[in-house]
Every structure is written in structure tokens, then in C-alpha cells.
Design brief:
By secondary structure, the protein is an all-alpha fold. It has helices at about 1-10, 20-40, 55-80.
């Protein structure tokens, strides 16, 4: 009997809440989008240098999206899902 109670308690006790996971997936989307925007810009011919690698999208926008995504991930981890339940 004690073992069944322990199993039920462990199944219902998750580390993060629904809100945490939502923010984690949003942050993961920002990070993935940043890395997708960073890709490309290479040249087919190794003897020719392509200046396309230095455009705004790869130098400013993509790294900013990745950093915003990491910030959202940190927020999602530190967010307390039981904040409203404790009062």
C-alpha cells in the first residue's frame, strides 16, 4: 500500500509547471531561429571571398535572438510556478 502512494506522489510532483515549459519552448524557438538566421553566406568557390557573411542578419540580428532566447530560458528556469498557490 505504501508503494502505491509513493508512485502516485512521484507522478504528480513535477519540477516545473506548465508556464515554465511554455517559456522554455519559446526560448528554444528564439535560439533555433537565431542559429538558422546565422547559417549560410558561404561561397561555392573556395578561392572567392563572399562579403555576404558580414550583413546585418548574421552579425547583429541572429546573435541578438540567441541571447534573448538564453535570457528567456533563464527566466523560465527561475520562474516559480507555485507563487500564486502559496498565498
Amino acid at each position: 500500500m505504501g508503494e502505491q502512494k509513493r508512485k502516485q506522489d512521484s507522478k504528480s510532483n513535477l519540477i516545473f509547471g506548465k508556464k515554465n515549459y511554455k517559456f522554455m519552448f519559446i526560448g528554444l524557438g528564439f535560439i533555433a531561429l537565431g542559429f538558422i538566421l546565422m547559417s549560410g553566406g558561404g561561397s561555392d568557390d573556395p578561392n572567392v571571398f563572399n562579403l555576404e557573411i558580414f550583413n546585418f542578419r548574421r552579425i547583429r540580428l541572429a546573435p541578438t535572438l540567441v541571447l534573448i532566447g538564453f535570457g528567456i530560458q533563464i527566466y523560465a528556469i527561475l520562474l516559480n510556478p507555485d507563487k500564486n498557490k502559496s498565498k
